[in-house]
Amino acid sequence: MIEILRQIDAEALLAINSWHTAFLDPFMKMASARLVWIPFYLSILYVLWRARGWKATLGIALLIGLLITLADQSCATLIRPYVQRLRPTNPDNPLSQFVTVVDGYRGGSYGFPSCHASNTFALAVFLTFITRNRLIIITMFLWAVLNCYSRMYLGVHYPGDILAGALLGTLCAFLVYALFRLALRRLRHPLPAPIPANPALYLPIPAAFLLSLLAFALVSLVP
Q1: Digit-coded pLDDT (tens) for 67-86
Q2: Residue 112 neighbours by CB under 8 Å, 6+ apart
Q3: What is the pLDDT of residue 200?
Q4: Angle between helices 134-153 and 24-32 (to 10 degrees)
Q5: Dihedral (Cα; 114, 115, 120, 121), 10-degree rounding
Q6: What distance in Å separates the CA atoms of residue 114 and residue 90, rounded to the nearest whole number?
Q7: pTM
Q8: For the residues of 92-106, what is the DSSP string, one character each?
Q9: For residues 113 and 90, what is the distance between their CA atoms, to the nearest angstrom?
């Protein structure tokens, strides 16, 4: 059964990785990067500041830092060295000869679970609890899915790596939010209200996401 699942995982990865174009190669490589999303992250902090004030935003930012550290290190430090599943692009993996590599990017040695999937889904799920705003939630999950897809497009993760990372990130978000609620209960402080359905308040997040995609597209069109 395990061997069958591995075969399905490999075939699914090769199918996704085979859909390459001259436009999507640089687009997906940028989408997979971390620093290019800084304006998007700043838009989240801006909206939280407008809706909650600077003190609450600082507290939420610290919780997000704790969450991402937990999600990232659970993957990179605890699970990967134990499982030691080679990335599809790793030259020591026999599958690598069938994988399309973009600009020589192969990632690290091991890929199970995906830290990108764990981190992005952890943030998306946590902000779902914190904001309870439909458009923000949709934007966050579109961002998370794009990140995850880019990792498979680049050939550095199997779909199974992505699924495991997303599940791990979701569990981390539930855990951190549960601790957050427990702390508020002990302090006899009410839970934060949903972010109001006021476009002037929450639109910076989807706007920053769309502008980032536009920037990726424009750069990808440059010869």
Answers
A1: 999 999 999 999 999 999 99
A2: 79, 80, 83, 85, 158, 160, 161, 164
A3: 82
A4: 120
A5: 60
A6: 15
A7: 0.95
A8: TSGGGGGSPPSTT--
A9: 15
